[in-house]
Amino acid sequence: MASIKKVYRGMQNGAETINDDLEAINSELTSGGNIVHKTGNESIAGNKTFTEDTTVKNLNITGGIKTTTTVNVNVGNGMSIRLTKKGNFVEVRFYGTMTTVKHGAEMGGDGSSWIIPDFRPEVTVSLVGHLASGTESFHIDIEPTGRVVWWGPAVTGTGGAPRGTAFYLLN
Known about the structure:
CATH superfamily of one domain: Phage tail base-plate Siphoviridae RBP, head domain
Main location: virion
InterPro entries: Adenovirus_pIV-like_att, Caudo_bapla_RBP
Keywords: Host-virus interaction
CATH topology of one domain: Immunoglobulin-like
GO biological process, one term: cell adhesion
Shape: elongated
Strand order of the largest sheet: 1-2-3-8
Low-confidence stretches: none
Number of strands: 8
Subcellular location: Virion
C-alpha cells in the first residue's frame, strides 16, 4: 500500500505533499503492488470466496476440481446413511443397527437429523434396502424437506442391520 501523508489547511508545502502522494499511488498502481487489476495478466494467491454468481469467459484449470461430496447422516432409530453426491446423482448406503420404529413413522431419536439441503431431492424418493440379519426388506422415503420416513416392518427393541445401496437424482 502506498505511503501517503495527511494534507491539512495551511500546511507548508501542501501542494508538493499532494503531488508526492499522487505519485506514490500511481507508482503502486503501475508496479502491480498488492492490488487486483481490472485488466491484464496476473496471479492471485490465497483462497478466495465469491458470494455472488461468477461469470468466466474461458476457464483453464491446473490441479483438480472436487466433483464428489460425501456426508454420513444419523437419520434415527439406529439407521445411518452415507450419501455421496456426484453432480446431481446421489448414492446412498445404509448401515447401523435398527431400534424400535413403526411402519410409516418419521425416523428420529437422540442425535438424529434430517437430510441436509445439498442432498435433498426435489420430489420424494423411495430407496430400497434389506435387513442383513434376516430376510426382510424395507424402503425409506426421503422427502424434499429432508425428512426420512420408514416403510419397513415394525421393529421392536434391537432389530436387524440395514444394508444396501440405492441411488437417486437431485433434479
